[in-house]
Amino acid sequence: MARLGVITGLVSERDCLAVFPAAARPSTHCAGIGTAAARKASRALIAEGCTALLSLGMGGGLDPNLNAGAIVIAERIVTADGRSLATENAWRKSLVEVLAGAGDMVSVAPIAGSESVVTSVEAKQNLRRLTGAAIVDMESVGVAEVAAEAGLPFLALRAVADTAGRSVPAWVLRGVGADGGLRPWVVAAGLLVRPWAWPIVAGLGWDSRRARAGLRRVAMLSGPGFGLR
Q1: Half-sphere exposure of 102 (CA within 13 A, CB side)
Q2: Which of 39, 64, 156, 210 is deepest in the core (most CB within 10 A)?
Q3: Per-residue pLDDT tens for 177-188?
Q4: ∠ CA(148), CA(151), CA(155), 5° rounding?
Q5: Is residue 227 included in any domain, yes or no?
Q6: What distance in Å separates the CA atoms of residue 156 and residue 139, rounded to the nearest whole number?
Q7: pLDDT tens readout for residues 55-114
């Protein structure tokens, strides 16, 4: 039976797997932000003996029909420069079957891989037009590349944290460290000089909580194997 390795970009994404007893959790690396970090974490999991890789976490919504907390299972990973990386067909179908009880919370669609954070509504719309993707993240493409190099099954599962119609101020992003940990004091300091931004930050925080709740629900429904057989 395949041994699952899970790559997240953020500590809070990794912590969603705490719905499982410690002994039952899949091997997991919190890579930190970005494609290069995801590649490194993926190779480390393979070195530990993992034989299938799952990119798990939150992302920016590109499909305007998706609300915060909606789950996208990757049909494939696509990039703005035209690359397309396949996901494992049998595994994807198995996970869809397992999550049938989640209803329209879960959809299957392309996920866009980006080398930089996509923050503005205009940038999201442009990426949607270029790729047809439903959601974007910065780690899945790196995981997909390493899995393809190693000839291993790969899948990505992402929850919408900021919807297609919501922009994320650049200064708010500094509240996430390179290791994927949160730095709330950075955001608090930013709000001291931008008190008018409280509603924006509160909305982003609420949507992120919905996304993490979606990830936890999917984990509980699918079990620690996430449909892998």
Answers
A1: 24
A2: 156
A3: 777 777 878 878
A4: 60
A5: no
A6: 10
A7: 999 999 999 999 999 999 999 999 988 899 999 999 999 999 999 877 778 999 999 999
Ramachandran angles phi, psi of 61, nearest 5°:
-70, 135
CATH number of residue 105's parent domain? 3.40.50.1580
Residue 229 in domain: no
β-pairing, 154-162 with 52-61? parallel
Residue 170 lies in a domain: yes
The residues, ordered by sequence, that sit 6+ positions from 123 with a Cβ below 8 Å of its Cβ are none
Which parts of the chain are beta strand (E)? 4-8, 27-30, 52-61, 71-79, 84-86, 106-113, 135-137, 154-162
Pairing of strands 27-30, 4-8: parallel
pLDDT band at 129; cut points 50, 70, 90: very high
Answer whether 47's CB lies under 8 Å from 134's CB: no
How many structural domains are present in the chain? Answer: 1
pLDDT confidence of residue 90: 96
**Host domain of residue 11:** 4-222
Residue 156 forms part of a structural domain: yes
| CA 51 from centroid of its chain's CA atoms | 20
